[in-house]
Design brief:
Strand order of the largest sheet: 2-1-3-4
Helix content: 25-40%
Radius of gyration: 14 Å
Largest sheet: 4 strands, mixed
Shape: globular
Number of strands: 4
Length: about 90
């Protein structure tokens, strides 16, 4: 597709990735490494939230952690695919 017609998404600094997990979770640690790498390379801000500190997050996500939200919408859970996350953040 011609660059003239390609849809331009929000700027990197206008995006937000949220990683929802809990302490002592090996999948959460793996997800953190991927999120930190991709967001760091793209300049996208990210945050972590702990389900043990937030009852609403616990009730919603406890069976799915780690969960990654992009701009407040669920992107993935359990395993974070670097290529898929990068594609989501650059489109």
């Amino acid at each position: 597709m011609s660059p003239l017609f390609r849809r331009k998404g929000p700027a990197a600094q206008d995006r937000l990735v949220t990683l929802i997990g809990k302490p002592d979770c090996h999948l959460c640690e793996d997800a953190e490494a991927v999120v930190a790498k991709v967001c760091g390379e793209l300049g996208v801000p990210w945050e972590q939230k702990d389900i043990t500190q937030d009852r609403a997050l616990h009730d919603e996500y406890w069976e799915q952690i780690p969960v990654v939200l992009v701009d407040g919408r669920q992107h993935t859970f359990w395993r974070v695919d670097e290529v898929r996350l990068r594609k989501e953040l650059t489109n």
